[in-house]
Design brief:
The chain is of the alpha/beta class. The two termini are about 20 Å apart. The longest helix is centred in the middle third of the chain and has 16 residues. The chain has 3 domains: about 375 residues, Glycosidases (TIM Barrel); about 55 residues, Oligo-1,6-glucosidase, Domain 2 (Oligo-1,6-glucosidase, domain 2), CATH 3.90.400; about 80 residues, Sandwich (Immunoglobulin-like), CATH 2.60.40.1180. The protein is about 30% helix and about 15% strand.
Length: about 525
């Protein structure tokens, strides 16, 4: 242990309205999450990431916040949140909450005051222009097709305001230090409620230019200010940044260990998807070679899917073409001209061997692993739902009405359940998989336990291994002991050599897709989509 709890975290993301309804209104809620914490503890989860639960008109799944100090009444109350935090603490589960402060809802009192009175103290909380500014290629809406401009006319104010996302989400102006102070007050409030950290939504846009000169801020100063404040207020609290940025900008966020604690690893995410689609290790090993080693107090968070789209926009064009062809050939599977709105299980065609390989690879990657609800049972998507909601369908607990998610009638459920096909809830659900020792759920539980026992993955430097077969990804971790992990991305068995590792036969095999004979010298066999973890 190096003293940082998050190095051995297993993060599990929950979209509260879709997880568990406790009162029969068809809307998941905080009490429902509380009632399922024992399930998460049994799985091995020790860090719960909650998507927005603040008061909101919910025109964008709660990312349009109208009150940062209140819970959306459909999700519960402040007391319900306290109960959730208390029970999670008893079970050893930390809570990270989404901090959505790049923008507010247009129904937030700050914006209501700003638009109605140009002399309001809240006017400069937002970015205004009396005339619609010219926009360049880099100032396009975050949701192409849903919005056609980053400027929206406000008739009451007779002026335009800037919005990177939907027009009902006006951007906050972080060049205004009063806005920064408001954010610290929000964080202080939720730390007092029992949270252990914050996922910073749209982190690059918080500090970036918002349409007009003077609206960007110096990243080192800003992130350092928040980090110093956190160190004083709650030293073990963390910041996790959603920052889909070039590698060259990573230091702007980490600042040699004095800024953001953790970064969502979009670089490895894209590379893993590309490697799976092409059945070759090159996209991933290239990224592993290039990925900066972060200071000891900073870490990457690895994921296959979050609850937005699978973003491919920074993949080389040739690699992206392969991913679209293999994993999302139909236009309805694609979104925003940059990615896929699909879950991992259907992306991989429900192939259980390939799914196990994918999750083994995820947990072997340097950093901290993150799952989202339903990953552990291989849930599917509903492409009939709009935009990102395709991957936010209700959790499939059992085969009872509404999949055990709610006792409400189907017309009241927040999103339509997956009822038919290979991913319908009667085929894919928690209850069935918990009673089947060969299920994906049981495999994930073993995988989580294995990762927790080998914290070296989250704390030590790694080396991509030289392997003779291009389909194999090899990673080596080393401190007092050595951990060598191999994955075969191809759909056929392979035999590969690991030059310089003739002692591998003396290692203990701690995780594998099926039984293999011990390695011979430096020669290792792997089955179709096989994987082997060696410790010695």
């Amino acid at each position: 242990m190096n003293g940082h709890w998050f190095t051995n975290a297993i993060i599990y993301g929950v979209n509260i309205p879709s997880f568990q309804d406790s009162n029969g209104d068809g809307f998941g809620d905080l009490t429902g999450v509380t009632n399922r914490l024992d399930y998460l503890a049994e799985l091995g989860v020790n860090c719960l990431w909650l998507l927005p639960f603040y008061a909101s008109p919910r025109r964008d799944n709660g990312y349009d916040v109208s009150n940062y100090y209140a819970v959306d009444p459909r999700l519960g109350t402040i007391d319900d949140f306290r109960n959730l935090a208390d029970r999670a603490r008893e079970l050893g589960i930390r809570i990270i909450v989404d901090l959505v402060v790049h923008h507010t809802s247009d129904r937030h009192p700050w914006f209501e005051a700003a638009k109605s009175d140009r002399k309001s103290a809240f006017r400069d909380y937002y970015v205004w222009s009396d005339h619609r500014p010219e926009t360049g290629p880099g100032e396009q809406p975050a949701f192409p097709g849903a919005e056609d401009s980053v400027w929206h006319y406000e008739p009451m104010s007779r002026s335009y305001y800037h919005h990177a996302f939907y027009h009902f989400q006006p951007d906050l102006n972080f060049a205004n230090t009063r806005v920064q102070e408001e954010v610290l007050r929000i964080m202080d409030f939720w730390l007092a409620m029992g949270v252990s950290g914050f996922r910073l939504d749209a982190a690059p846009l918080i500090i970036g230019r918002k349409g007009l000169p003077g609206t960007e801020i110096e990243p080192h100063h800003f992130w350092n200010r928040i980090r110093a404040w956190l160190n004083h207020r709650q030293p073990d609290a963390v910041m996790l940044a959603e920052a889909n940025i070039p590698m060259t900008e990573i230091e702007n966020y980490i600042n040699s260990g004095h800024g953001i604690h953790m970064l969502l690893n979009f670089w490895s995410n894209r590379a893993m998807v590309s490697a799976l689609a092409s059945h070759t290790s090159l996209p991933l090993t290239s990224i592993l070679d290039a990925l900066p080693v972060l200071p000891g107090a900073s870490h990457y968070v690895n994921f296959w899917r979050n609850l937005d789209e699978l973003n491919l926009e920074h993949l080389p064009e040739s690699e992206a073409a392969v991913v679209y062809r293999e994993f999302g050939p139909d236009p309805e599977m694609q979104i925003y001209n940059r990615g896929l709105r699909r879950r991992l299980a259907p992306i991989l065609g429900g192939d259980q061997a390939r799914l196990r390989l994918a999750y083994s690879l995820l947990f072997a990657m340097p950093g901290v692993p993150m799952l989202v609800y339903g990953d552990e049972i291989g849930m599917g998507e509903n492409l009939a739902l709009e935009e990102r909601d395709s991957v936010r369908t209700p959790m499939q607990w059992d085969t009872t009405a509404q999949a055990g998610f709610s006792i409400a009638g189907s017309s009241s459920i927040i999103h339509r359940l997956i009822t038919t096909g290979a991913y319908g809830f009667e085929r894919v659900n928690v209850t069935a998989q918990r009673t089947d020792p060969n299920s994906l759920w049981h495999f994930l539980r073993v995988l989580i336990s294995t990762r927790k026992r080998h914290e070296v993955i989250g704390t030590e430097a790694f080396t991509p291994l030289e392997v003779t077969d291009p389909a194999i990804v090899g990673i080596r971790y080393h401190n007092a002991h050595t951990l060598i992990i191999l994955h075969n991305l191809s759909d056929h068995p392979v035999t590969a050599q690991l030059p310089g590792h003739s002692n591998l036969r003396r290692f203990k095999e701690i995780l594998t897709d099926h039984h293999y004979d011990p390695p011979k010298s430096d020669e290792v066999k792997l089955g179709r989509y096989g994987f082997r973890w060696f410790y010695g």
